[in-house]
Amino acid sequence: MSDFRQLSDSMYASPQIGTADVAAAKEIGVALIVNNRPEGESDDQVPGPAIEAAARDAGIDYLAIPITHAGFSHPQVAALAAALEKADGPVLGYCRSGTRSTLLWALARASLGDDPAALADAAARAGYDVAPVRPAMDALAAQSR
């Protein structure tokens, strides 16, 4: 059962997905699936290559930007920002709970100049709290001006 949470018109976050969820993503127009889980993070996760194969079979692009519990790096933020800019439709990011995907999205959008307060509100409406990265969001948004 899919638990896609809409962060914006062009972004969804989700807890771990399975191959059946790829069809549900296709139904809502997702053009890119971004895997934010490192491989082998838990025994019950569906391997990234299985999700990638299902996505490609459905005509959906796939990108892995693994985020460990060590936090976020500038290259990870830049990679998602670039992917968001070139995606030909909505993006679905997933991790264990959807939190890392949401935080990375908020950082990437802030780096592109989006208002951190609006991003925080959007995340909260979807059930996520960006407080752990809010100072970084503010700094990235300031740098983008």
Automatic annotation (TrEMBL):
Sorted keywords for this record are: Transferase
* DNA damage found in the keyword field: no
Family matches, as SUPFAM superfamilies: (Phosphotyrosine protein) phosphatases II (SSF52799)
Ranges of residues in domain Beta-lactamase hydrolase-like protein phosphatase-like: 3-110
By its UniProt entry, which Pfam families does this protein fall under?
A: BLH_phosphatase
Q: Name one GO molecular function term.
A: transferase activity
Keyword Transferase annotated: yes
Protein name, per record:
TIGR01244 family sulfur transferase
This chain's source organism reads Tsuneonella litorea
